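DM between two lab members

TW: hey, do you still have the Molybdenum ABC transporter substrate-binding protein entry open?
JB: yeah, one sec
JB: this one, 233 aa:
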Amino acid sequence: MKAISSMATRLVLADLMAAAAAERLARVDVESVGGVDAAGRVAAGEAFDLVFLASGALSRLAADGHVDAETVTPLVLSQVAIAVPSGSSEKAVRPDGPAFADAAGLRDALRNATRVGYSTGPSGTALAKMIDDWGMSSELGDRLVQARPGIPVARSLADGEVDLGFQQLSELVGQPGVRILGVMPDDCAIDTVFSGGVATASADQARARKVLTFFASAAVAPIKAQHSFGVPA
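TW: and the structure you got?
JB:
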């Protein structure tokens, strides 16, 4: 079986697929690319059995008939975290705690940053909108640096291209050259639910449904936690 996903879930999906294979449900090969590219390939008719994307993107594919709407299932909850290069003097906090006390503290950090990195995915879109709502887009100007599709913000931080980066916590944990300050403050948190769905082009929809049900089960919750994902309510 074939599946496609955004980069944000590639590592947790690898372990979930291994668990599915161990349960003899199916062997699924997952290709992980930028979320925009993944949605575009599914919309273009490329044959996949399962699709894993942010809930909004998956719902749009379902509305257009590329994914079976009845199968769309929330799988993991991801928080956006804030990180700096590992050599930065910024003080780190618990990775699962807020990086700053509140939105005001975050705005100060944005103003003090030389270059701010953010992703092309839904979290990046939400961050850009938040900055615009705060009236800071013009103030920050070209200091806002959007990562290229499929390129993690962690790499931009490690390479010194940006000195403050925003991306899914799961994408930052364990990456070399970065230090996580924490997640977004509670009053401006950006959370994303990633879901899975059976592609209408699947040649074995019944088996794909079984895999998806397994991925939503309590049996694999520890795998999700190991990758810093929560379970959607």
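TW: got it. The mean pLDDT is 92. The longest helix spans residues 10-22.
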